[in-house]
Specification:
With 168 residues, the chain is α+β, with helices and mostly antiparallel strands. The chain has helices at residues 33-37, 53-65, 67-72, 86-96, 111-116, 159-167, and strands at 12-17, 27-32, 41-47, 77-82, 102-106, 119-122, 128-131, 134-139, 142-148. It has one domain (12-167): Glutaredoxin (3-Layer(aba) Sandwich), CATH 3.40.30.10. The chain is built from six helices and nine strands. The strands form two sheets. It has a seven-stranded mixed sheet with strand order 2-1-5-4-3-8-9. A two-stranded antiparallel sheet has the order 6-7.
């Protein structure tokens, strides 16, 4: 399992882009984790699934609401990672009105989640292998803080906790 001090795994996430520009075409675009985190501070949070109750009602809205405070704390980007495809993450971004505040990144085959060791097996609930709920502060590709939720919990991966860590 990934821990504080480790480098994020080399993986490719996918991001649905609705407006062409900045080298990205409309539709799913690859995001090389190593390149995208180089020289940046990233507030990364992951969750079991798009459009799920806690994720939609609390997790994503908290990060969207705290965007300005994260920027003031020196965070360059906020990433939401979920084991869904890029089209679902794009639709969820529209639904959650994330705009340019939170990058909604798809880990469609759970490769990134498996490489971090932070998976959650929800096969018995018909959802397959998913990401555990967690947050981390990443600086230049290295994990600085890591907050992993217990089963069914939403206590330490919220925006307020990670913002306090980023501000420290």
């Amino acid at each position: 399992m990934i821990k504080v001090g480790d480098t994020l795994p080399a993986a490719t996430l996918m991001e649905y882009v609705e407006v062409e520009g900045g080298g990205c075409s409309i539709g799913p675009n690859p995001v090389d984790v190593t390149k995208a985190t180089a020289g940046k501070t990233i507030a990364l949070f992951a969750l079991p699934g798009a459009f799920t109750p806690t994720c939609s009602a609390k997790h994503v809205p908290g990060y969207v609401a705290q965007y300005d405070a994260f920027k003031a704390a020196g965070v360059d980007e906020i990433w939401c990672v979920s084991v869904n495809d890029a089209f679902v993450m794009g639709a969820w971004a529209r639904d959650q009105k994330t705009g340019s505040k939170v990058r909604m990144l798809a880990d469609g085959s759970a490769a990134f989640s498996q490489a971090t060791g932070l998976t959650l097996d929800l096969t018995s609930k018909g959802m397959g292998l998913r990401s555990n709920r967690y947050s981390m502060l990443v600086k230049d590709g290295k994990v600085v803080t890591l907050n992993i939720e217990g089963p069914g919990k939403f206590e330490v991966s919220d925006a307020a906790t990670l913002l306090a860590q980023a501000s420290a």
